[in-house]
Amino acid sequence: MSVQIIQAKSIITMDPALPRAEALAFDADTQKIVAVGTLEQCQAAAPGVQVQDLGATVLMPGFVEPHSHPILTGVITQPPAHWIAPYVGFPKYSDVQTLWTKTHQESPSGTALIFNGLDRLLQGAPELTNAELDGFFPDRPVVVIDNSGHEVYFNTAVIKFLNWADGKPPVDPMGARYGRNADGTSNGRAYETAAVLTVVDPIMAKALTHPLQSAAKFYQVLAQNGITSVSEMTYNTSMLKGYEALASAADCPVRVTLFHMSINADAGDPLNSTVSTNMLHKQGIKLWADGSPWVGTIAASFPYLDNATTQNAQIPIGPGGEAMMNYTRIELDQVLAKYAPMGWQFSFHVNGDIGLDIVLDAYEQALVQNNLMGTDHRWRVEHVGACRGDQFDRAAAMGIGISLGVFQYIYWGDLLDGTMFASEIGANWMRWGDAVKSGATYSFHNDGPVSPPNVLLNVQTAITRLSDGGTVHGPGQIISLDDALKAQTINAAHMLHRDDLVGSITVGKMADFVELSMDPYLADPTKLATEVVVQGTWLGGRKLNLDSFLSEIIAIDPSEHANLATTQNKCC
């Protein structure tokens, strides 16, 4: 046994049995924590061991991101792809247009281009067509991915590249559709996962040169934000080799939990991998109930407001209701009936209140039919922006976990309240206060590539309800710092079925830590995300060298992972 002791100014353990400590000891061989408490207690557990003093550093368990898409985020946000979201430097549609003109002029003729993150509401962009994109890109294949991930826009060169007969898309796949002109030809739009993939995958394969390197760069971003455990919510088997390569690197900074897309025929198959399950683990099945609030496809009981902002974004006023569901109730029941007996955990993307009612109805039936009601099944719902507190109470009674997309409130909060929706709905969008009160297990997520994985900003927003514009909406949803930190540590680990390994600094768990510049409990709540700085991350007792990790991945032959350029889509 090779034990090491770390001392810090304070250790926030997230373990209710011992909330604070000043030192910990871990076994470098097993990578697990063997003692937590005072320095004297740790030295008694490991006599004669030299102590590494981290000085003014405050230590916490590594943050957990329970809903993300790491490989996809890397390949569609890192160069040669272009990230054009409003909060990464392109606040207006005119900024995006300027980039398009510049990129077209500077890129070699015929080079395919990928742009991710167009936001019709925040940027004031229209719902694009191939005709509009042809004005910027007359001859090269170009796809523009909506920031929601539920829609993609593409030019005529893409339609030709896909060899669609007479310019007409194929038959709409289940739960998805293609945009069509009156004569049946493509209008340069595709909606929902299966249709979006048909368009995006071939162009990604043409545009990307080293997709594994792009994925590794996003792993770096995760670690720089203190995240040491993450999920892949749209896993398919073609990703396995890439995830194995990343996990096998000496300084791999994150552990990954996989949720397989239900649309894949092998979704119920166990993971067949030689990589340690501590680093790569398959846990569940992922489904999409409805669409995105940013493109008007949520299954909601209330309409959008009719004004210049929603009209310019070409948002259908609605309400969309059950018509916005991607599956019929029969189809949902069939998927649950197929995979529940296999023991998989379920995860349902859902944003609208009607959508959540339908999901909870389907969950309840499946839980009863499979004798799972009252067991530790940990089935989940994701995002739940428009959903109500009474629905969270019902979810809690059924043992359903609630993973909230705080980013929806951060970046769209000012639009949601009174511009997109009536204030009684928009001000209380993303009811994390009600989620805490319900007693359900709740967590926070960023859903990369929809928003940067800024855990500390999530926490700051949860305890203040300050939007990106500095306004407080729905102050009744404010929660305590204790509850906010749980959402990104032990609760998030619980939702991934990894709380036996990570989520708190507890004896027997992995030695995964984040170093913080100051104690978040001492920070100004309104400035927590800037006053508290992530200074480093540890995985399995090893302080990570992120540059070394990236160098190791760059050295891998790109051709070995070319398939990652046709990885799967995500939805928020």
- Radius of gyration, rounded? 23 Å
Largest sheet: 8 strands, mixed
CATH superfamily of the largest domain: Metal-dependent hydrolases
| Beta-strand content bin | 15-25%
The strand count comes to 22
Task: Give the overall shape, derived from the CA principal axes.
Answer: globular
Low-confidence region ranges: none
Percent in helix: 25-40%
- Class per helix and strand makeup: alpha/beta
Would you tell me which CATH topology of the largest domain applies? TIM Barrel
Query: How many distinct folded domains?
Result: 3
Can you describe what's shown?
- The chain is 32% helix and 20% strand.
- By secondary structure, the protein is α/β, with parallel strands linked by helices.
- The chain has 3 domains: 3-56, Urease, subunit C, domain 1 (Roll); 82-207, Roll (Diaminopimelate Epimerase, Chain A, domain 1); 213-554, Alpha-Beta Barrel (TIM Barrel), CATH 3.20.20.140.
- The strands form 3 sheets. Strands 1, 2, 3, 4, 5, 20, 21 and 22 form an 8-stranded mixed beta sheet that branches. The chain has an 8-stranded parallel beta sheet with strand order 6-13-14-15-16-17-18-19.
- Helix 8 (211-224) runs antiparallel to helix 21 (546-554), helix 11 packs across helix 12 (353-369) and helix 13 (389-397) runs parallel beside helix 16 (432-438).
